[in-house]
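FAQ: What does the model actually see?

It sees only this:
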Amino acid sequence: MVHDLADHLGRAVRLPDIDIPRLPAGPEDNVDTVEELAAMARAAWGIQPGPIPGVVGLLERHGIVCARYHTGTHTVDAFSVPYTDRPIVILGDDKAKRDRECFSGAHELGHLVMHTLEQAGSKSAEDQANAFAAAFLMPADDIRAELPSSAAWNQLVALKRRWGTSIGALLRRSKTLGIMSDGTYQQAYRYMGTRGWRVNEPGDLGAAEAPQLLCQASRQAGISIPSLSETTGWPETWIEGILRASSDQRPKLQL
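And it is asked to produce this:
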């Protein structure tokens, strides 16, 4: 449905050009190789060193249509479909936390950059996409000096706010880069479990980033939901639900 909406709206307004670097990774490629591919992807998009302010907006500016959908499961944070004419990333609204979604968006970008449909769902592809997301969001050279070797929770909350990634992701990054020992990481991970932080971490980053592309395209094109329904064949209620979920529904402050 999202692909059909994007296809129809793309005939009325010019959507961002698709600009996704293709950097294939095979099942035999290790973490070091994936780190290099993530660095190459950042360079291809001209991303400056340091944190990325908004991953969803970054994907949309490079031609990837993002939308939000209630997946109905706690095992899926996001998924992507590499349509050649318009890649799609679907973000689950079940656990829409800004830090987790930041990683999920980068994870799906990793699939679009590195993998084919034949590789989808394999353990090696999922592990590589996780490694890509970590390196894409937290480049080793940029974050290494900031990561703690112990579970310094106040410092980790501050890093979460700076880098936009979860404490769990920061801990894993510290372990992957050899800054934190496996034992210290395991102890920290268990402590997070006892405090319920694997579900709700301290240092909430606020509302998850809202996709913009579909709603802006429909507004600029002046195409109504009934018209989209008639053209695409999808029910109006479904389209309305996707557009509502895929936008920022907070009331705008009038100054």
